[in-house]
Amino acid sequence: MSTAINLGGFLRTRRSLLHPEDVALPDFGGQRRVAGLRREEIAQLAGVSVDYYTRMEQGRVPNPSGAVLDALARALQLDEDAARHLHRLARPQSATRHVPPPQARPQRVRPMLQRLLDDLVGTPALVMGRRMDILAWNTAACALFGDYAALDRAERNIARITFLDETSRELYAEWTSCARENVAYLHLDAGRHPEDPRLASLIGELSMKSEDFRRWWAEHPVQDKTSGTKRFHHPVVGDLELAYETLRPADDPEQALITYAAEPGSASHDALRMLLAWATEAPSPMPADDRAR
């Protein structure tokens, strides 16, 4: 994945989303030949020349200053995640100076995260690694999402399951929102690791097999996975509304423990308890070779 191509696409897409009234610029009416703001308008807002900004979109500015990138982020009204992504795309060597190269061998879950999973008996939880790979899970997570142990290791990926497994469209009550979040997170990961061949392969596969993924990827969304609420249509217990939280070790942010919980006393809480009681009758433990070592 060329960072120059990604940078140009990102800038053009974000420019196309803005309108003169969004940035207090006069709109003299008439039909615009391009969607959103013109290059000269972004250059004006950022305090750079039109030629400089044009070369930025073309990926021909090898090392823009942090101040210029901050000015562009403000001009394009980027949020914190998108602004960091812009810095990574524009200055990949600087942004990844302290990031180790992608691992050749598959990631394995950290032993402490594995112990936490084992202790979270009543809470669906999984560990997400690089590229949204599913590194580990507990029985409650299988009850909620499906039997990860039945999948080949290469198939245990949140984005791949979301876009290529038709049952995910039935499970997530707001599938489009969940799927778009996955695209945005993969864009973030691509900015952090632009030379990762396995990530490029995943993005290529999803682009070929999913029209939705291909269309949303071209929009260049960027969003980290943090916390929020998801609604489910579960085939066993019906509707569920669960809050999720993402926890990352300070010394290894490439692994994240994601937990799901219902509001105490709610209908979803009762449904989740029923689901977990059903799951204990036929648990699906992790294969022995996938557990932490």
UniProtKB/TrEMBL annotation:
Pfam families to which the protein is assigned, alphabetical: HTH_31, MLTR_LBD
Annotated ranges, domain HTH cro/C1-type: 32-83
GO MF terms held by the record: DNA binding
InterPro entries in the cross-refs: Cro/C1-type_HTH, Lambda_DNA-bd_dom_sf, MLTR_LBD
Domain of life (superkingdom): Bacteria
Cross-referenced PANTHER family: BLL4672 PROTEIN, BLL4672 PROTEIN-RELATED
Protein's recorded name: XRE family transcriptional regulator
Native source species: Streptomyces aquilus
Higher taxonomy: Bacteria, Bacillati, Actinomycetota, Actinomycetes, Kitasatosporales
